[in-house]
Specification:
The protein is α+β, with helices and mostly antiparallel strands. It has 4 helices and 6 strands. Strands 4-3-2-1-5-6 form a 6-stranded antiparallel sheet, covered by helices on one side. A hairpin with a 3-residue loop joins strand 1 and strand 2 (about 100-110). This is Spore coat protein CotO.
Length: about 140
């Protein structure tokens, strides 16, 4: 219990922890304004986006017999060639009878799948594809 002397003595003393003002943080904000100019400049990142890769033409002889494509494989490939999904599901593995190709899907055109394997562009006919794998598991929608 406090005596009157104790209370009088406390009034004249400063508190142990006294915050004089709230913490103020100052941030410098500089808005970026695009200036109009008569000169035409090409932004660095737009040059890369406009780059078009010419795909080599695959020669198909008339003597070839039409081979049925597995509808499951075709459905998965149609799903995967969407631009966003190409980036999302990379690297993807295409399993054929002869080999396994691991890379990024480029294009699906005329029953031929074009894949980028490192710096090389590889073509795979769809009817040769046995399985599509992503993260060591068979891919399914």
């Amino acid at each position: 219990m406090l005596n009157k002397k104790d209370v009088r003595g406390m009034r004249n003393e400063e508190p142990l922890l006294f915050i004089k003002s709230p913490v103020i943080r100052k941030f410098m904000y500089t808005p970026t304004v695009e200036e109009e100019s008569t000169s035409v400049f090409e932004m660095e990142h737009t040059r890369e986006a406009e780059r078009v890769i010419e795909l080599p033409q695959l020669v198909v002889s008339d003597e070839e017999v039409s081979v049925e494509v597995n509808p499951y494989i075709q459905k998965n490939l149609d799903y995967l060639v969407h631009p966003f999904r190409k980036e999302l599901y990379q690297p993807i593995e295409i399993v054929t009878e002869e080999r396994v190709v691991k890379g990024i899907l480029e294009e699906l055109k005329d029953d031929v799948l074009w894949m980028k394997e490192g710096e090389d562009l590889t073509s795979i006919t769809i009817h040769d594809i046995r399985d599509i794998k992503w993260k060591q598991q068979s891919f399914s929608i």
